């Protein structure tokens, strides 16, 4: 179904666009005019001067008729205004507009929206009368926040067991991400997401008696028997660029945000900082003290990996997995960070 054919069928609905019921059409030829009647009192009349003119009208295709109207297209939105009402004060009100994007066609008649999708095997037609519904822009920008928990996998693909000094505690090993994102619509329900953000990682050790320190050639984990430790961790921060391809099945099926969404893609980041922190009290009962060391010397400056997202409605979960290790080669244990969390 082509845009212009659909448009001429819908031009007869201009009067009914503000009513509740759909019209029934009655086509007839009345001597020197073509009359399209609809509803109880609506009609569109095309007047011809003679039978020869009528025969010429019949021989014209729809594109020739459109070109003869000399309509102007809005280059920014791709919309074409077909019918408008000119008011007494000189202003105009658009009544019938059409927008075509590949195999997708959208016609707006007053408060009515008719959407035609020919991207699949079967043509889908949807009619909406919600005047407040806004058209989805082809490109948009937005800001979101990642909040998750961190861990890492050893070369065997397992989480380090508790007998390792660097085994992390899930509660307290937080990941915070601040992301500025953009989404480019490729087709209906299919998007290219990309952006840049800042990620802050905390790896809180399960065994709080061990402290990570900077050794001569590598990071070392020493057991502190001389104090009462109550917090030990490594932190790192990165600036990260990411890109993903997203499938929104709700948009594909015209269900809005109520459908399933999945997205996946790579990311790469550069380290901004890194340190170890050890909080303790002396055995004699002193106040709380902290030891901080710059252990960033042994962290990889670059990180890269894969990010995945899955969401339903307004809830979106994410996971990231670094394909390279947290520490530089031979400078620390071979560990690949992994994060699970939720997107706000």
Characterise this structure:
This protein is mainly β and 344 residues long. The chain folds into two domains: 3-128, no CATH class; 139-343, Lipocalin. Helices cover 8% and strands 53% of the residues. The protein is built from four helices and 19 strands. The chain has helices at 3-10, 51-59, 62-69, 249-252; strands at 25-30, 33-38, 42-47, 79-86, 92-101, 104-109, 112-117, 124-128, 139-153, 174-187, 190-204, 210-214, 219-223, 227-248, 260-282, 289-293, 302-312, 315-322, 336-343. The strands form four sheets. It has an eight-stranded antiparallel barrel. The longest helix is centred in the first third of the chain and has 9 residues, at 51-59. It is elongated, with a radius of gyration of 32 Å. The protein starts with a helix and ends with a strand.
Write the layout of secondary structure elements.
Layout: H1 3-10, E1 25-30, E2 33-38, E3 42-47, H2 51-59, H3 62-69, E4 79-86, E5 92-101, E6 104-109, E7 112-117, E8 124-128, E9 139-153, E10 174-187, E11 190-204, E12 210-214, E13 219-223, E14 227-248, H4 249-252, E15 260-282, E16 289-293, E17 302-312, E18 315-322, E19 336-343
Antiparallel strand pairs: 1-2, 2-3, 4-5, 5-6, 6-7, 7-8, 9-10, 9-19, 10-11, 11-14, 12-13, 14-15, 15-16, 15-17, 17-18, 18-19
């Amino acid at each position: 179904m082509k845009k212009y054919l659909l448009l001429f069928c819908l031009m007869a609905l201009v009067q009914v666009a503000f009513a509740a019921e759909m019209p029934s059409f009655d086509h007839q030829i009345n001597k020197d005019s073509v009359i399209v009647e609809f509803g109880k009192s609506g009609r569109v009349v095309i007047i011809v001067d003679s039978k020869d003119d009528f025969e010429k009208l019949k021989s014209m295709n729809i594109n020739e008729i459109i070109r003869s109207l000399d309509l102007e297209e809005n280059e920014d939105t791709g919309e074409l205004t077909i019918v408008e009402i000119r008011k007494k004060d000189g202003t105009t009100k658009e009544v019938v507009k059409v927008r075509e994007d590949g195999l997708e066609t959208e016609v707006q008649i007053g408060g009515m929206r008719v959407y035609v999708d020919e991207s699949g095997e079967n043509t889908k037609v949807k009619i909406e009368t919600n005047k407040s519904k806004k058209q989805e822009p082809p490109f948009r920008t937005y800001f979101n926040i990642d909040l998750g928990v961190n861990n890492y996998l050893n070369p065997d693909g397992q989480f380090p067991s508790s007998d390792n000094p660097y085994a992390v505690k899930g509660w307290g090993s937080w990941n915070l991400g601040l992301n500025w994102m953009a989404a480019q619509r490729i087709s209906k329900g299919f998007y290219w997401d990309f952006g840049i953000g800042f990620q802050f990682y905390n790896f809180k050790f399960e065994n709080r008696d061990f402290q990570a320190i900077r050794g001569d050639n590598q990071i070392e984990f020493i057991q502190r028997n001389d104090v009462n430790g109550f917090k030990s961790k490594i932190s790192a921060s990165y600036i990260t660029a990411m890109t993903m391809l997203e499938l929104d099945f709700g948009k594909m099926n015209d269900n809005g945000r109520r459908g399933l969404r999945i997205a996946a893609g790579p990311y790469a980041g550069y380290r901004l900082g890194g340190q170890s922190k050890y909080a303790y009290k002396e055995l004699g009962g002193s106040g709380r003290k902290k030891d901080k060391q710059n252990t960033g010397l042994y962290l990889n400056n670059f990180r890269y990996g894969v990010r995945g997202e899955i969401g339903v409605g307004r809830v979106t979960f994410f996971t990231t997995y670094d394909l390279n290790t947290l520490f530089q080669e031979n400078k620390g244990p071979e560990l690949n960070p992994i994060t699970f969390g939720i997107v706000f």
